[in-house]
Write a structure and sequence with these properties.
elongated, 434 Repressor (Amino-terminal Domain), three-stranded mixed beta sheet, CBS-domain, single chain, alpha/beta, 17% strand, 185 residues, 2 domains
């Protein structure tokens, strides 16, 4: 379902486009855009979709992408490393979570929250003897370097962080604090 047709004018103005520029970019006539914006015509679904698709592409094109906000290199812990070493890594890097890797692939994540939950659970785990994988949670979602911030923001509503991958290799990580930093810029 498409947005209301009145959105075309608002989005065009927001994108700082003239009717002629939008017509050229969307392969729709300028006169059709003028008639739609004045409410004199109701376009076919196909033509309206062309206009909305064009305006969406323009908006996303201006939006920052994962590669512009990610922290790199990715700090991580190996699944078979000691939990104590994982805790020290969190502390040393000032992080609240880390991806957990096994043979170079992400198999989970570890966080202050997951570690404390395991320490306070029954049976308790011994920090001195336990492996990182014993306090591991689900793997972080992965995204591509060109993922727009709006999509990342949606993922961060349900996850502590997202892992940025390129050609199957982890190249960065994004947390809520990375997005907050961007808002301040």
């Amino acid at each position: 379902m498409l947005p209301d047709l009145s959105e075309i004018k608002a989005r065009r103005i927001s994108a700082r486009l003239t009717q002629s520029q939008l017509a050229e970019l969307s392969n729709v006539s300028q006169s059709l855009i003028a008639k739609i914006e004045s409410g004199n015509i109701e376009p076919s679904f196909g033509r309206a979709k062309k206009l909305f698709d064009c305006l969406t592409r323009l908006k996303l094109g201006k939006e920052k992408q994962a590669k512009e906000v990610m922290t790199k290199p990715v700090k991580f812990v190996k699944a078979h490393e000691s939990l104590k070493k994982a805790i020290k890594a969190l502390e040393r890097h000032g992080l609240s979570q880390l991806p957990v890797l096994d043979k170079g692939k992400q198999v989970g994540s570890i966080s202050e929250k997951s570690i404390l939950a395991k320490i306070n659970s029954s049976p308790r785990i011994d920090v001195e003897k336990a492996m990182a994988e014993e306090a591991m949670e689900e793997a972080l979602p992965t995204i591509q370097t060109n993922t727009p911030i709006s999509a990342i923001n949606q993922l961060l509503n349900f996850n502590a962080a997202v892992l940025v991958v390129e050609k199957g290799k982890s190249v960065g990580i994004i947390t809520k604090s990375n997005l907050l930093e961007q808002m301040l810029k």
